[in-house]
């Protein structure tokens, strides 16, 4: 299948940027702004198109290791991200299976190195991959300065500071390319929240790779980890759902492609949850109307982002319909039986099953025998598919004993 890597990445990358904002208070769209500045520096330096396309991917993903790191250990807001080595090593490991156009190694690992050896791994000068140097510089700029103020006297101040770092912390050619960039009005306008995604698309070379769904799954799993890491109560939710979807696919004797597509849909089904604050997701009480209304938006945003990806038509349906119900009482569209295909129904049932087996702030996780009566009850009341519920009982009842 012809697949546009950066199209996929931009569609789902808000996930990364929301995590960074929630944990470290970095203004939203950090990853995208770093990608934009990196891309513009790369263009100024005359980089080849394939390199530019990879540079954008790597820049968008540069802090992807963060959510896994915080899942294990919640840091204080005071901790500076650039002091946490683990987000570099985890981030590098996560992208190992990412289908880059070139052989990109260690770019994310070394994105906080400085040419004078003062970075986390004490690499110096040309030992630091050049793309790491560009991304590291763009990262520094985004954290230190406000893109929307880059004109007039503010620009003079930025220029002065960058010049003191030139040749000391950052490569001179990167600093000079950046200083040429900020003289342009579009530099700040392109980075406004409403323009940034479109701007990156405009300047990123279109690169279609011939990928199969297996390779695409390598990418969806990175995001599945990020989604699960959002809250300790859901730390295995997408992964667990994806495993169960795989078992049901085997039971139904699905072919390889349909099975992998179902896995991808399960990996990404709760992508929209990244937009909801943990205060709501982890509330130990009944939610208010306002809070529940916010929760209901998550599948809407799952649909908004996945529907931008070419080749994801069915995956979008299966992923985004998981809270719809056969009797029309679900959300966000209130679809009914005639609109819900088999895999949408399947993921809907499995999502309830998976959630009930997990611990929540207000109850502990349930076993198969406690979950099934709830599912049968919902099926009898017309919410979910009776036949699928019975199949789930067959498949997981035998493994649970
Ligand atoms: Fe970083
Ligand atoms: Fe960063
Ligand atoms: Fe959900
Ligand atoms: Fe879910």
Automatic annotation (TrEMBL):
Q: Short name of one Pfam family for this protein?
A: HD_5
Source domain of life is Bacteria
Domain spans labelled HD-GYP: 5-194, 212-401
Q: What is this protein called?
A: HD domain-containing protein
Recorded source organism is: Pectinatus cerevisiiphilus
């Amino acid at each position: 299948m012809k697949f546009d890597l950066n199209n996929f990445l931009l569609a789902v990358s808000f996930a990364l940027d929301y995590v960074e904002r929630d944990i470290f208070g970095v203004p939203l769209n950090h990853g995208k702004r770093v990608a934009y500045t990196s891309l513009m520096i790369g263009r100024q330096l005359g980089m080849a198109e394939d390199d530019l396309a990879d540079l954008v991917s790597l820049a968008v993903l540069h802090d992807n290791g963060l959510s896994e790191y915080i899942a294990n250990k919640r840091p204080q807001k005071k901790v500076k991200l650039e002091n946490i080595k683990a987000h570099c090593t985890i981030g590098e490991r996560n992208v190992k299976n990412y289908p880059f156009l070139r052989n990109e190694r260690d770019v994310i690992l070394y994105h906080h190195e400085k040419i004078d050896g003062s970075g986390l791994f004490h690499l110096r000068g040309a030992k630091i991959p050049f793309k790491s140097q560009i991304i590291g510089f763009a990262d520094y700029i985004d954290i230190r300065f406000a893109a929307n103020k880059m004109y007039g006297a503010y620009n003079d101040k930025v220029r002065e500071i960058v010049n003191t770092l030139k040749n000391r912390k950052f490569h001179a050619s990167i600093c000079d390319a950046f200083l040429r960039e900020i003289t342009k009005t579009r530099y700040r306008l392109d980075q406004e929240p409403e323009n940034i995604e479109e701007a990156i698309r405009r300047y990123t070379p279109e690169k279609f790779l011939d990928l199969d769904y297996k390779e695409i799954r390598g990418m969806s799993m990175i995001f599945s980890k990020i989604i699960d890491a959002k809250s300790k109560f859901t730390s295995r939710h997408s992964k667990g759902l994806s495993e169960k979807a795989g078992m049901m696919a085997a039971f139904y004797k699905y072919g390889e492609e349909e099975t992998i597509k179902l896995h991808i849909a399960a990996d990404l089904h709760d992508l929209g949850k990244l937009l909801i604050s943990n205060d709501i997701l982890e509330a130990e009480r009944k939610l208010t109307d306002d809070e529940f209304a916010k929760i209901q938006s998550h599948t809407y945003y799952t649909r908004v982002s996945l529907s931008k990806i070419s080749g994801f038509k069915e995956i979008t349906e299966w992923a985004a319909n998981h809270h719809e119900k056969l009797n029309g009482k679900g959300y966000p569209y209130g679809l009914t039986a005639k609109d819900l295909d088999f895999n949408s129904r399947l993921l809907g049932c499995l999502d309830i099953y998976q959630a009930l087996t997990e611990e929540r702030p207000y109850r502990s996780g349930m076993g198969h025998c406690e979950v099934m009566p709830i599912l049968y009850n919902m099926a009898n009341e017309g919410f979910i598919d009776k036949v699928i519920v019975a199949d789930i009982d067959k498949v997981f009842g035998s493994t649970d004993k």
